[in-house]
Amino acid sequence: MNDIKKVVLAYSGGLDTSIILKWLQEEYGCEVVTFTADLGQGEELDPAREKAEMLGIKEIFIEDLREEFVRDYVFPMFRANALYEGVYLLGTSIARPLIAKRQVEIAAQTGAQAVCHGATGKGNDQVRFELGYYACNPGIHVIAPWREWDLNSREKLIAYAEQHQIPVPKDKRGEAPFSVDANLLHTSSEGKVLEDPAEPCPEFVYQRTVAPEDAPDAPTFIEIGFKSGDAVSIDGEEMSPATLLARLNALGGANGIGRLDLVENRFVGMKSRGVYETPGGTVLLAAHRGMESITLDRGAMHLKDELMPRYAELIYNGFWFSPERDMLQAAIDNSQKYVTGSVTLKLYKGSASVVARKSDYSLYSEEHVTFEEDAVYDQQDAEGFIKLNALRLKLLGRQRG
User: Fold this and answer.
1) 96 noted as active-site residue
2) Dihedral sign, CA of 275, 180, 44, 24?
3) Residue 356 · residue 345 · CB < 8 Å
4) Which residues, listed in sequence order, are joined to residue 37 by a DSSP beta bridge?
5) How far apart are the C-alpha atoms of 388 and 373, rounded to whole Å?
6) Closest Cα partner for 82 from 90, 93, 72, 70?
7) Of residues 71, 154, 179, 266, which has the active-site annotation?
8) What is the DSSP secondary structure assignment for residue 35, as one 8-state letter?
9) pTM for this one?
């Protein structure tokens, strides 16, 4: 502790990180630098600055990272069509490496010896943050209060806050109904009313999407333009990455798209239930796969699908900065050179369906696939193809039959 004179804290301005801020001052006797990242969580960030100032913080960093987040983290992940355990679009996981990287950079800028996060000792985020820290600065010191202190209940946290004149929001004095993490890609809700997986998720948990049955009775049609695997426009209007994702969130949310109630396997070994809303990401995934369907060769597409679960698991487990993720990313990015064109989708009561797709690089050949007469394909060729593929099956059948 004596070696730590200054620490950079990932600070939201909420009760937990405000308590951590004061605890660092008390337990470590060090100067605290706060870092608050705007990743599109939809909250006012000025209160975080005001609360940090009230707690005596002199160096306060509040940064708008929305464009970097979508451009350099979300979009590369979506080129892979990444889904953890087949369904989860990794909205929390993909935000952690950017926060960790920026924290370490601020530590170097301010001369801090340590970084600190507010993740608990039960979850995945502690792993994701700390793997990111060590990848960006192998010599950094990491402080994880939830693994050190004895403030292991809501009552103890509130008592500590009141003892140190830290404002406690009224809704935090009782049992919080659930905890929420949000960014431009998704919202994640866990705990309390969601802890029993046998009980359906209450409707009040959902924040970004209307219930599918309450969505408009008429479908919404949109056209998403792609260039080299990344979405660049909606209905012909070019947009920045963050602006585009925000627009898809609004369109998807209004049509009840992107809800997921999941019991997943955490990296630390336990199962947990999360309720996720990823309206824009769900639309984007459908559109990207639609674009790939006409521009990617079969072998490349199938290999990508084989690599995807491993890639998704690396992100979920916190290995964004690992050499194996870099290797997979290089292969994925190489496949996206001709994933350019546009996809039309129908958004309707919880679903995002591809209804049309076009590209100057399309591999779809109507003259080959037509049911009408053609001059480019000899159907008799299929006989030899089938016989060659059947040869090993015939030999097996004779030997074992």
Assistant:
1) yes
2) negative
3) no
4) 63
5) 26
6) 90
7) 179
8) E
9) 0.95
Number of Cβ within 10 Å of residue 197's Cβ equals: 13
Average pLDDT over residues 299-310: 98
Q: What is the pLDDT of residues 284-293, one digit of tens each?
A: 999 999 999 9
What domains lie within the chain, and their CATH numbers? 6-66+94-176 (3.40.50.620), 181-358 (3.90.1260.10), 368-396 (no CATH)
Query: Which distant-in-sequence residues (6+ apart) come within 8 Å of 378 by Cβ?
Result: none
Per-residue confidence (pLDDT) for residue 174, from 0 to 100: 58
pLDDT in tens, 114-150: 999 999 999 999 999 999 999 999 999 999 999 999 9
DSSP class of 239: -
Residues contacting 363, CB < 8 A, separation 6+: 294, 295, 296, 297
Catalytic residue among 16, 49, 189, 342: 16
Give me 291's structure tokens: 């674009």
16-29 burial: b if 16+ Cβ within 10 Å, else e = bbbbbbbbbbeebe
| Residue 181 appears among annotated catalytic residues | no
Q: Are the beta carbons of 94 and 87 closer than 8 angstroms?
A: no
Alpha helices per DSSP H over 261-362 = 279-295, 298-317, 323-335
**Looking at 66, 79, 96, 208, which residue is catalytic?**
96
Task: Kindly state the average pLDDT of the residues 230-257.
Answer: 98
Non-local CB neighbours of 104 within 8 Å, separated by 6+ positions? 115, 132, 133, 136, 137, 140
Q: What is the pLDDT of residue 154?
A: 78
Q: What is the mean pLDDT of residues 59-80?
A: 98
